[in-house]
Amino acid sequence: GAGVSQSPSNKVTEKGKDVELRCDPISGHTALYWYRQSLGQGLEFLIYFQGNSAPDKSGLPSDRFSAERTGGSVSTLTIQRTQQEDSAVYLCASSLGEGSPYEQYFGPGTRLTVT
Amino acid sequence: AQRVTQPEKLLSVFKGAPVELKCNYSYSGSPELFWYVQYSRQRLQLLLRHISRESIKGFTADLNKGETSFHLKKPFAQEEDSAMYYCAPQYSGGSNYKLTFGKGTLLTVNP
Q1: Phi, psi of A2 (to 5 degrees)
Q2: Residue A86's pLDDT band (boundaries 50, 70, 90)?
Q3: Do B97 and A35 touch (CB under 8 A)?
Q4: CA–CA separation, B42 vs A83, rounded Å?
């Protein structure tokens, strides 16, 4: 079946602009995660959704970052007033449920470049 | 804070040689342990998990709780093993099973 999809695959934006990144998880997966992959920092957790609720937003680096999930499916990560340090690959992952028996399946990522 | 250390950023071996990718993690409860792999131009994917005690593509990983290590090993490396490897403990914080990734080791297997 279809895996996790993300759009756009690449996004170039000017410093100060807002961007929206989209994630379509695997159908039926209730858990959804956002991670960020950047040079020097590796892969960092950003936020976790269970259904439409986000019980853990502890990884969001600043209040310029927000995310929502609707219908227990699609999620959008929004970055306001982008800065150059926001440049990274943003990865979304979904899993069938919570916990370690459930593998996290990753999307291809959105490469964000802030100029 | 939970920490994951992969001491080698780059690892280069010849085809047929043994390979070991090191991973040490900080102890916080009893994390589940995973290795993820990212081949060139492909998405990040699960390679193996400790709980399954499985061998995938000839790779195994042994958990040493005393040393808090979860090193990945393969006795005979193949060129197709060239990829970026991430060690990822999964610490359960409430209901959140987020992965904590190491910085990764780029493995190159030379012909």
Answers
A1: -70, 140
A2: very high
A3: no
A4: 27
pLDDT in tens, A7-26: 999 999 999 999 999 999 99
Query: Which residue of B43, B49, B101 is in closest CB contact with A43?
Result: B101
| DSSP conformation class of B96 | B
Helices (H) and strands (E) in chain B, counts: 0, 10
How many residues make up chain B in this entry? 111
The chain A residues in contact with chain B (CB within 8 A) are 3, 31, 33, 35, 42-45, 48, 50, 55-56, 59, 91, 93, 95, 98-109
With beta carbons less than 8 A apart as the criterion, state whether B77 and B109 touch.
yes
Cis peptide before A8 (omega within 30 of 0): yes
Cβ atoms A106, A91 nearer than 8 A: yes
- CB-based contact A100 B92, cutoff 8 Å: yes
pLDDT digits (tens, 9 = 90+) for A32-69: 999 999 887 789 999 999 889 888 888 999 999 999 99
User: Residue B86: its chain A contacts at CB < 8 A?
Assistant: 42-43
Q: What is the mean pLDDT of residues A58-84?
A: 95
Across-strand partners of A66? Answer: A78
Task: Measure the CA–CA gap between B43 and A106, rounded to whole angstroms.
Answer: 7
Give the pLDDT band (50/70/90) at residue A77.
very high
